[in-house]
Specification:
The protein is α/β, with parallel strands linked by helices. It has helices spanning about 5-20, 50-60, 60-75, 95-110, 140-155, 175-190, 205-220, 230-255, 265-270, 270-280, 335-345, 365-375, 410-415, 420-425, 450-470, 485-495, 500-510, 515-535, 545-570, and strands at about 35, 45-50, 80-85, 90-95, 125, 160-170, 260-265, 285-290, 305-310, 320, 350-355, 380-385, 390, 395, 435. Helix 4 (about 95-110) crosses helix 19, helix 5 packs across helix 17 and helix 15 crosses helix 18 (about 515-535). About 40% of the residues are buried.
């Protein structure tokens, strides 16, 4: 239960009652009313801005409205006190019994704690990773993969129907370079000596040796000595399929499994580009014109020529966007238009794209074209994942994909473990750079967030095993929770009760990192409560000779484990029974 939403509903009812009684005018809109934790916990447990929101509509002073609503809230059984602060904020303090009752709800919900029906089954297409199949995924790609996958799980947690999608560019100059590189490795696999200079401008990485050998195994010397025009297409098709199989395997090692893989080549040959552009042309959004020189280019280096352009500036972009190159082939943007139209055609009214840091310049044009294609009916969000700096003991690890010198995603997972990669990638907001130290992320300390959070769950499980040895037949489910009276215990319960709100807020903002921060704070609060028992034996979770108090405190500890497990489940991270 989201207690903040619950009290928002209580306030809505009170406003309706006051309107019916004539104390407030009718027809007041409470959509903008919020109930949140106060900035200063000394002010209470909940803070409502209802009086400030309604003042203009009701043509009354905020404090007058606050006094009317506060008087009704004081009669609510869970409310211990009501205060009006500043110009009209209403601060509520709830009784201890209300908070203790939340523990029973948490334990009953289990790992589903925090789930809601906020999404009401609405369909969302979430596209992430979408790396061109020119080689294995590297460390930088891991961030977008984790972010997208966890965001999908988060949205599912609150009731959305999510389609996880991967869109790959399997045509164009990059893919031709992949085919030529594969052909060289293929010849090498057949015994030919290939000079390193032959890879100039291509992909020299050793990862293509396996692809070349596989092609040799399948086709023998079929493609040796022929004209490039004869072998380029078949080799390209083989290389793309092999690279996509490698990428899928790498993603699976990270715990990422997408529902749909969409090929740009398939869209092009199916005529989807022409179909999408015809829609824009029918709307009067395509024309032939000459663009201004790009910023930073000298006029003498600029060769103006008529181009086929999309009126992106009509929708907030900085420039209209070319759709065809000088040779008449499509620009990169044209198939992207077709792809987004294809998603709209499939019935998605909500789209999310997760892009890398090098695609920041595409945001405005993509939003412009989705708005144009859907007449503004499609909700579209683009999340940019900034760069990951890989470190080893604080020293940068240099990588170059072009030279083939880089650490792959699979190597990263093999070295530090899937759980570590998935959690650490969410310890910064997606649009902030992230440092990933290969040594520090596997340390067993408070400074390692994934260890600290997993250790909280394992510590609770250890508590349960220890209690079972000391107390025979201890029944945690029927524990007398009224025995939980210590301020630290109540503070921990309040933090646990905030989880449903955290989940919904993170889902609404498309910001799963918020949950990583919450879980770290929850683990810290639990470990802090545990450590109090080191100094004061009466504060231990297992109290010698007192089965009743032990059962109550174990119920609190179990609620911590349930909440941690709920969060780690969203993250695709194990909630361990013990730490090794």
């Amino acid at each position: 239960m989201n207690i903040f939403n619950q009290f928002k509903s209580v306030i809505d009812v009170i406003v309706d009652e006051l309107s019916t009684d004539g104390a407030l005018p009718g027809g007041l809109d409470t959509a903008a009313v919020t109930v949140e934790p106060p900035r200063d916990s000394s002010h209470g447990d909940l803070a409502a801005n209802v009086a400030l929101v309604l003042a203009k509509q009701a043509k009354r002073k905020p404090r007058e409205i606050a006094e009317l609503i506060a008087a009704r809230l004081a009669d609510h059984g869970a409310v211990e006190s009501v205060d009006i602060a500043g110009p009209g904020f209403i601060n509520l303090r709830l009784g201890d019994s209300f908070w203790r009752d939340r523990l029973a709800e948490i334990l009953s919900a289990g790992k589903d704690y925090g789930a809601s029906l906020m999404g009401a089954g609405a369909a969302i297409n979430l596209e992430y990773v979408s790396i061109n199949p020119t080689g294995p995924l590297h460390v930088g790609h891991a961030r977008g993969a984790v972010f997208g996958d966890v965001l999908a799980s988060l949205l599912e947690k609150v009731g959305y129907a999510v389609t996880r999608e991967y869109y790959y560019n399997d045509s164009g100059a990059q893919i031709d370079s992949l085919a030529r590189s594969t052909h060289l490795r293929y010849r090498e696999a057949l015994g030919e000596t290939i000079d390193a200079a032959a890879f100039e401008g291509l992909y020299p990485g050793d990862y293509l040796k396996r692809t070349g050998a596989a092609l040799a195994d399948r086709d023998g010397d079929k493609w040796v000595g022929g004209e490039e025009a004869d072998w380029l297409g078949p080799v390209r098709e083989f290389a793309v399929a092999d690279m996509m199989a490698l990428i899928r395997d790498d993603l699976a090692a990270l715990g990422v499994n997408q529902d749909v893989f969409t090929s740009e080549h398939d869209l092009v040959i199916a005529g989807r580009v022409e179909e999408a552009l015809q829609i824009l042309e029918d709307k009067g959004l395509i024309y032939t014109g000459v663009l201004e020189p790009p910023k930073g280019k000298k006029p003498e280096n600029w060769e103006p020529r008529p181009q086929t352009l999309f009126r992106a500036t009509d929708f907030g972009d900085d420039s209209d966007r070319p759709l065809k190159k000088a040779d008449g082939s499509w620009t990169y943007f044209a198939p992207d238009i077709a792809y987004h139209h294809d998603k709209i055609r499939r019935g998605f009214n909500s789209l999310i794209n997760v892009l890398g840091a090098d695609h920041g310049g595409y945001v405005k044009r993509l939003k412009a074209v989705v708005h144009a294609l859907s007449d503004g009916a499609v909700d579209y969000d683009i999340k940019i994942c900034q760069m990951v700096t890989l470190l080893r003991r604080g020293e940068p690890v240099k990588m170059s994909k072009r030279s083939g010198d880089f650490i792959t995603l699979r190597q990263l997972v093999d070295e530090v473990g899937r759980d570590v990669v998935r959690f650490i990638m969410l310890m910064r907001k997606n649009d902030s750079p992230l440092e990933f130290d290969l040594v520090r992320v596997i340390e067993q300390s408070k400074d390692n967030p994934v260890f600290y959070v997993q250790y909280a769950h394992a510590r609770v499980r250890s508590l349960m095993r220890g209690a079972a040895e000391q107390f025979s037949g201890l029944d945690v489910e029927s524990a007398d929770l009224a025995l939980l009276q210590d301020p630290g215990e109540l503070a921990l319960i309040k933090l646990l009760a905030a989880w449903p709100r955290q989940v919904e807020a993170a889902a609404e903002a498309h910001e799963p990192h918020r949950l990583a921060f919450y879980l770290y704070d929850l683990a810290g609060a639990f470990h802090g409560q545990w450590n109090r028992g080191n100094d004061d034996p009466t504060m231990r979770f297992i109290v010698a000779g007192d089965a009743a108090l032990t059962a109550a405190r174990l119920a609190l500890a179990q609620a911590v484990a349930v909440t941690v497990a709920s969060g780690l489940d969203i993250f695709g991270v194990e909630a361990p029974e013990e730490m090794r």
